[in-house]
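Researcher: Next entry: NADP-dependent oxidoreductase domain-containing protein (Filobasidium floriforme).
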Amino acid sequence: MSSVNVPTLKLSTTGDAMPIVGTGLWKVPENACAESVYQAIKAGYRMFDSSSDYANEHESGKGLKRAIDEGLVKREDVFIVTKLWNTFKKAENVEPECRRQLANWQTDYFDLYLIHFPIALQYVDPATRYPPEWFADGKSGIVTERSPLHLTWPAMESLVDKKLVRNLGVCSFPGALLMDLMTYARIPPSVHQVEMHPYNVQEDQLQLCKAFDIKMMAFCSFGPASWVELDVPTVKQVDPLFTHPIITKLASKHSRTPGQILLRWATQRGFIVIPKSVKPERMAENLNSTDFDLEKEDIEEISGLDRRFRFGDPKAFDPKLSIFA
Ligand SMILES: NC(=O)c1ccc[n+]([C@@H]2O[C@H](COP(=O)([O-])OP(=O)(O)OC[C@H]3O[C@@H](n4cnc5c(N)ncnc54)[C@H](OP(=O)(O)O)[C@@H]3O)[C@@H](O)[C@H]2O)c1
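Model: Predicted structure:
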């Protein structure tokens, strides 16, 4: 895999090299996504974090194909991560959904396939609505489905057996659920993706995952920044991070931007990061965040901001549904 100076981590089940900096595609507008993926590859990105729920997989695939057709990269140079949405948890729905996502991305395998949330929601026929989002009827609240994880996981494993997917992982699993999964997984998760920023440093999950040789991946590295446009009330309960005095002080100390300080803090702690931006200068800034080191006391000072504060709880969309209650 061509690395463009971004270090990699070796995944436990396959030994695959995963870049520690990629870019996330949530809220990248559909009509801008093909160009965004293409420009990201041109800028040196070799890892993308996607999901059917982001409603831009088809466009992402177009951007990747253009980069491959123009000889910028080969398919095997790019590490594609995507996720199984909550409504496809019944074992019989897993493979058709993965194949639909592969067709959208115009590829025949994903490098990493994650369970998007540790909950199962009522199936929505993709012919009716795709992506299905949170509510079965599109409006009136969460309806769960009888699809326990111990039946979904073997269907995920069969994607690996069929070479549709190389590595498996999960997102936002409470520790006890992850430990339970480890008791029966034939192919264990290689990656756990969680919300992680200075207000939620996830030290407990980091230690648990180290014990299982599961690599950790951070979403929302910039804390509230991603949630401002969604008008989530919790945004007002914390200070923005880009202007936080501790972050700006360390940015001056290391002659880096606040964004680079936040990302380096995460990668030095062992997290893989996937900052999202649609702005070329920020994409470059975020990618170039691994060629300096914070000192131990810098890392501890940022970690001292921890409040176990979470933005990405489904209760933001339905007050009855806190999966972290
Ligand atoms: N597993 C899950 O449940 C889950 C949940 C949430 C997110 N994710 C994944 O994680 C990825 C990253 O998380 P996120 O998108 O929520 O948030 P994020 O990367 O922490 O923040 C993105 C926000 O920060 C801005 N930004 C980016 N780089 C910047 C910089 N250098 N300086 C100043 N502002 C900057 C972006 O604006 P511009 O675009 O205007 O630059 C955007 O508003 C997502 O795209 C998605 O792939 C997964």
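Model: Note for the record: Residues 24-26, 49, 116, 171-172, 193, 219-222, 225-226, 242, 259, 274-279, 282, 285-286, 312 surround NAP (CB under 6 Å).
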